[in-house]
Amino acid sequence: MSQTIPEADREHYMRLLEDAAEPEAVDFAQKLLARGVPAQEVLLQLVAASQAEVGRRWAENRWSVAQEHAATHLNEQVVAAVATTIRPAQPSRGRIAVACVDGEWHSLPARLFAEVLRLHGWEVRFLGASVPGPHLVSYLHSYDPLALAVSCSLPTRLAAAKRTIEAAQEAGVAVLAGGAGFGENGRWARRLGADRVATDAVQAAQELAAWLPATPRSSPHPLLVGDDEDVMVSKHKQSLVDSGMRLLGERFPALARYSGHQRQATLEDLGHIADFLSASLLVDDAEMFTSFIGWLCIILESRRVPISTVDVVLEAYQRELYDYPRALRHLSAGRRQL
Q: Is there a single domain that holds both residue 220 and residue 236?
């Protein structure tokens, strides 16, 4: 997509995010619309692009979690303001439901997608963050959309995404999957049986236009692994974290001097490692796990945490999961990544 919003405007908007200047940011977006910038470009080139930059600044330890949350809230308010200017085409192309999978609280990407769909003439029912499966199925039965668009921002929610995809299809509703959580080009969504995959909002709108309502739904291709190693890793997550903390304590005596905040952050990191291991086992893709380990190392280095601590944790997990061959292969790949 060509850039219709000048770099100077996008830099100005980032400064507004940094200052958490909500009224000014909303006013700035409205001025862009009044200037003739299409709403889709404001949503994607301004809001979506700035949110990606917010994530980078947090990862590089340039922004705190509080700054990231404030900026995200501000972007949500800007999307809401832009949404009030959208006048859907009449008659609509049909009804589409948009939802985040259960446990997925990053709703901004899905909301952006929903508004882009409205711009393309669809009647959209946006269900928001973390929609429990039974409630989603009940909604689909009541409102009978042509399709369900499922958003997943984190691979650790892929098990929930799989349940959502299966539940929707059992209710007779086709599924379009999108979001960073489904991997590059949505490859993990295909493994989980999604009917269609889109890598961005514009492609999703085009996919829906070509697909519905005349084109029959494609046959899902569920992943067949033949074991439940992902389930077992998830089930034993706490024991894995405990074993990792014990070995860290033995190898790094400084752990005993950690503050409560530092210790909690360490526990969370160990939990994330277990979660990504489980997710990578679900889709049988060690690259997901090694990519996460590489990303985690970048985060830890920016916070001056020794990377060797990650190897210690992976070693501890290997000891615990000695009887799970695929898990051992993924953990070994993670250690090679280090």
A: no
